[in-house]
Amino acid sequence: MKISIITVAAAVLIASGSVFAFHCPADMKKIDDALAKNPKLTDAQLAEVKKQRADGEALHKAGKHQESVDTLGKAMKTLNVQ
Ligand SMILES: [Cu+2]
Questions:
Q1: Which of the four pLDDT bands, split at 50, 70 and 90, describes residue 10?
Q2: 72 Cα to the center of ligand 1, angstroms
Q3: Ligand 1 centre and the CA of 1: distance in Å?
Q4: pLDDT tens for each residue of 35-77
């Protein structure tokens, strides 16, 4: 019984990891789309969003999907997209 719970927990962890693997490119696209629409941001905000977008992509490529989603999430919040 205990073993099956651990197996299920491991499967959920693996599955959530792969969800993030797809999540990052989707978030990057949302940011790119929002940036293409000339968002009303200050130069400082725009620079920050672009940096977070680049950092998010680098983290994604490094396999750090949770950190990537978190970083991209900050940019999305500034851009007011979900
Ligand atoms: Cu990712």
A1: low
A2: 10
A3: 33
A4: 999 999 999 999 999 999 999 999 999 999 999 999 999 999 9
pLDDT bin (cut points 50, 70, 90) of residue 18 is: low
How far is CA 34 from its chain centroid? 15
Chain length of the chain: 82
pTM equals 0.77
Which runs of consecutive H residues, i.e. helices, occur in the chain?
2-36, 43-61, 65-79
Contact in structure between 79 and 31 (CB atoms under 8 Å): yes
What protein residues have CB closer than 5 angstroms to ion ligand 1? 21, 24, 60, 65, 68
**17 closest CA partner among 58, 72, 66:** 66
Do 69 and 23 meet the contact criterion of CB atoms below 8 Å apart? yes
